[in-house]
């Protein structure tokens, strides 16, 4: 049973992997009815590290609260069924190359003929225009294309460009953009009665989260930017190996204050991190450490190498809990360094209802993070665990007017898959 501000909105989800599924899952949390259309074998994330046939933790973590239809979209009868279903839908979400959508007759121009006020959210790797528009892409490809992969100049032990962490920032930020764009388009339709096509891409979101690194502000950084680009051109012309250039130019933290104020520390029994991004919080940290007056808290370059060494040594002389008591008392932004495996039972997480407990049709109980925000009047509510493959195929075909014999014939012909 749904609740939330999108209760009554029906979404047809053609997405796969991370960005699109996450965006549609967030919309489901807001109360929308989300019908996921999958190929007969299941979308690729189902097949990644399966712990039982057609079920993976990766898939279940990104598709809760949805229904699943499994069909062969190259089959004309299945295409006709999708067009019938679109007439009842408010939103279509897809993350495929434009040529794929057109070939399967699920592109915007085809589907808006069935419902003129349809909202069509189109998520691609690089946008629909330009020389890269035809390319497929996943998070690491978008990171490489956007500069995000090298924003910290991270190389592996052999000098190869490497991800700096296990998450997928371009994918996950695009998921949020998908949900945000759909909500904005629904609001616009409510005011005007008009549907529209909404576009986002991995590339634009990877650029967006780099904020000041991508931004050009000549009055501040014209010389620095031109110096870097000149050095890069000379390096390439001279044939300097990529890893040598990166090591030589090692990208520095764009956030000021890394010396002692914005970083992780080892303590006597673990680790913690501090994040003091304003003069007032840096003053509070100085007071907590007993180093008042030793730095100019408005200019973090005043932190000396000797002071960094002293503070690092100081931190190892107390436990994490002892330091957290001191920092809390002084209003210093800080946290112990936790592992994610510890957090389902963390008192702060529990107190804010940040964990939901669900029951999967096939794999039993599970816990997940809750909807990422709360609303006092129309609260989001997780609608259930991720669906088994094709669980709802038969139900929807019958609802669309196909007879039981027609459904059985489609299944026998291998055009659809009926779930467990």
List the helices and strands and how they pair.
Elements: E1 10-13, H1 19-29, E2 33-38, E3 50-52, E4 55-56, H2 57-60, E5 66-71, H3 76-86, E6 91-94, H4 98-103, H5 108-112, E7 119-124, H6 139-146, H7 169-192, E8 196-201, H8 202-208, H9 218-238, H10 242-249, E9 262-266, E10 271-275, H11 279-289, H12 305-315, H13 320-330, E11 334-336, H14 347-351, E12 355-360, E13 364-369, H15 393-399, H16 404-412, E14 416-417
Parallel strand pairs: 1-2, 1-6, 2-5, 6-7, 7-8
Antiparallel strand pairs: 3-4, 5-14, 9-10, 10-11, 12-13
Helix pairs in contact: 1-7, 6-8, 7-8, 11-13
How is this structure best described in words?
This protein is α/β, with parallel strands linked by helices. The protein folds into three domains: 10-207 and 353-417, Rossmann fold, CATH 3.40.50; 217-249; 262-342, formyl-coa transferase, domain 3 (2-Layer Sandwich), CATH 3.30.1540.10. Helices cover 38% and strands 15% of the residues. It contains 16 helices and 14 strands. The chain has a seven-stranded mixed β-sheet, sandwiched between helices. It has a three-stranded antiparallel β-sheet with strand order 9-10-11, covered by helices on one side. A two-stranded antiparallel ribbon has the order 3-4. The longest helix has 24 residues, at 169-192. It starts with 9 loop residues before the first strand and ends with a strand.
